[in-house]
């Protein structure tokens, strides 16, 4: 049986405003387990897949543009009931309606700049994780290529440029990846 996971993403405004540590801290203190974490620029097709259920909404174009406006921090959090609990930690979609003490309630005002995403069902947790894992894998390939080029240029051993962290996302996420 696979563990329950939620795909949680600090959106570009949250990254830009320096809220990453605050947000990770709240999930850690709650007690959930961080299974994967990566910073990257979301490819357009991943953003569109992520929000495909909302594609008929009038705000869909702005929403995708917002997600593409800067790097995001993608995380996979694991634990019993993590999907519903993460939604509580995050707060209501419209930050003006989010309770104080929630992430959106404490740090946001606009629905179009609401700092963070969390899956709304365990199935969507799996789906969104798989979609973003492809983006993370592509970012990893780019990072690996750059690292290799860099290692060649500077005549450092390539191993120096491959800390465990570079491959961690791929490995920890593999149970949820549909090949
Ligand atoms: P949530 O992010 O709380 O799961 P959602 O899935 O209904 O909310 O919508 C996804 C995002 O779309 C949401 O975080 C912000 C944006 N959004 C939702 N409703 C909106 C609206 N009425 N106007 C503008 N943006 C909206
Ligand atoms: Mg949603």
UniProtKB/TrEMBL annotation:
This is Nucleoside diphosphate kinase. GO terms for biological process: CTP biosynthetic process; GTP biosynthetic process; UTP biosynthetic process. It comes from the Eukaryota. The chain holds residues 39 to 217 of 217 of the full protein. The active site is at residue 117. Keywords: ATP-binding, Kinase, Nucleotide-binding, Transferase. It catalyses: a 2'-deoxyribonucleoside 5'-diphosphate + ATP = a 2'-deoxyribonucleoside 5'-triphosphate + ADP; a ribonucleoside 5'-diphosphate + ATP = a ribonucleoside 5'-triphosphate + ADP. Its cofactor is Mg(2+). Belongs to the NDK family. The keyword Transferase applies. GO terms for molecular function: ATP binding; nucleoside diphosphate kinase activity. The keyword Kinase applies. It comes from Monoraphidium neglectum. ATP binds at residues 11, 59, 87, 93, 104, 114. Its EC number is 2.7.4.6. Residues 3-133 form the Nucleoside diphosphate kinase-like domain.
């Amino acid at each position: 049986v696979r563990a329950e996971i939620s795909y949680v993403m600090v959106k570009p405004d949250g990254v830009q405003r320096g809220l990453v540590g605050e947000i990770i801290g709240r999930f850690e203190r709650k007690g959930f387990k961080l299974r994967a974490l990566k910073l990257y620029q979301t490819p357009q097709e991943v953003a569109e897949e992520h929000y495909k259920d909302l594609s008929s909404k009038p705000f869909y174009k702005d929403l995708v543009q917002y997600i593409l406006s800067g790097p995001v921090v993608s995380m996979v959090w694991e634990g019993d009931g993590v999907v519903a609990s993460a939604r509580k930690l995050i707060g209501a979609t419209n930050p003006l309606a989010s309770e104080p003490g929630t992430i959106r309630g404490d740090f946001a005002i606009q629905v179009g700049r609401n700092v963070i995403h969390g899956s709304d069902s365990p199935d969507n947790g799996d789906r969104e994780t798989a979609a973003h894992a492809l983006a993370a894998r592509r970012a990893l390939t780019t990072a690996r290529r750059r690292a290799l080029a860099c290692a060649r240029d500077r005549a450092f051993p390539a191993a120096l440029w491959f800390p465990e962290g570079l491959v961690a996302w791929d490995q920890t996420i593999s149970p949820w990846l549909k090949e």
